[in-house]
Structures are given as structure tokens and as C-alpha cells.
Design goal:
This protein is mainly alpha-helical. The protein has one domain. The protein is about 70% helix and about 0% strand. The chain contains seven helices and no strands. The C terminus is likely disordered.
């Protein structure tokens, strides 16, 4: 694991407690609403925010832990004969998406959430009775996670290039990040 991955996991362990907070808020909301006929103002909104931030950070956390789900239908159908070509195509698509598309659009989305049209700092708000700045916070977390995942993908691609195992017939075998760490 890289230093970035270690940091992501440590922060993710703290953010994971947001799910616990969401459960506690839900129980509190139900007891107040149905037990005392006193619905709360923040219950549902806070649960959406806590769950959303947890889910967003979860993508980067899974990349750091190398526990994300891989769909290997194409690789399994073609075997190992064209693995180097498929890896090149996969990296090109990943590069186009993670280095060019998502960060640029995320920056625009976050800029609109944090600044008004005149350029003054103003957090986007829900427009509800509480009018919390939750949309701005969640969109900023989304942008940060996209940047982190971009850095993680670049680090993984670099470590795969350095640690590629080549069998005698010249094809490249796929490696997990744990195998790269062992090299």
C-alpha cells in the first residue's frame, strides 16, 4: 500500500462511523416521531448526507484495500493471449475517464456548489426548512474522491508497469496490488 492508500484507509475508517451515526439518527427519528409525536427536522437529511459521504469515500477505500469487484468476462473469454493489448486499452479508457472527464466535470460541479455566479463564495443549500449546506459538502467530497481515485489509478498503473511478471511465452499475467507490493 502506498502512503496515499494508508491515509485513505485511515480516513475511511473514521468516515465509516457515519453509517453508525445514520442508524442512531434513524432510531432517534422513529422514537421521536412515533413515540412522542415530535418529528425532527434533521433526521432524513442527515442520513442522506452521512450515507452519501460514506458511499463516495467507499469507492476510494476499496481501491486502496484492493477489494473492489472486477468484471473479468472479456479476459476470461479471450484467455491470456492478448492480455498486454487489453491492459493497454483498459489503461487508455481509464486515462480518458479519470484524468480528463471526471475531474474536469467534478471541478465544474464543485465550483457551482461553492460559488455564486458572480464568483463570491457561497455554499449551495438545500432550500428546505433547515436550508443546510449539505449539497455543497457532498459535491466537494465527490470531487475530492475523484481526485484521489485518479491518483490511485496512476499509482497502480505505474506499479504494474514496474512489477509485470512475464512468463516465457511473452504474455503478461494480471497482478493484484498485493502481488506488486511483494515484488
Amino acid at each position: 500500500m502506498s502512503i496515499l492508500d494508508v491515509w485513505i484507509v485511515r480516513v475511511g475508517n473514521v468516515i465509516g462511523w457515519l453509517y453508525f451515526a445514520a442508524v442512531v439518527i434513524s432510531v432517534f427519528e422513529v422514537v421521536l416521531r412515533y413515540g412522542f409525536n415530535r418529528p425532527t427536522l434533521l433526521g432524513t437529511r442527515d442520513n442522506f448526507d452521512a450515507g452519501g459521504i460514506g458511499m463516495l469515500w467507499g469507492g476510494s477505500y476499496c481501491m486502496a484495500e484492493d477489494r473492489h469487484i472486477r468484471v473479468t468476462v472479456i479476459r476470461d473469454a479471450h484467455g491470456q493471449k492478448n492480455e498486454a493489448d487489453r491492459r493497454c486499452y483498459r489503461r487508455s479508457a481509464q486515462s480518458a475517464l479519470l484524468r480528463r472527464g471526471l475531474p474536469g466535470q467534478g471541478m465544474l460541479m464543485t465550483q457551482k456548489a461553492l460559488f455564486d455566479p458572480t464568483g463570491m463564495f457561497r455554499l449551495q443549500r438545500t432550500g428546505s426548512a433547515f436550508n443546510s449546506p449539505a449539497p455543497a459538502v457532498v459535491k466537494t467530497v465527490l470531487f475530492v474522491v475523484v481526485i484521489l481515485m485518479t491518483l490511485q489509478a496512476r499509482a497502480a498503473a505505474g506499479s504494474q508497469d514496474k512489477g509485470s511478471k512475464r512468463p516465457s511465452n511473452g504474455t503478461i499475467l494480471p497482478m493484484t496490488s498485493r502481488e506488486v507490493d511483494d515484488v
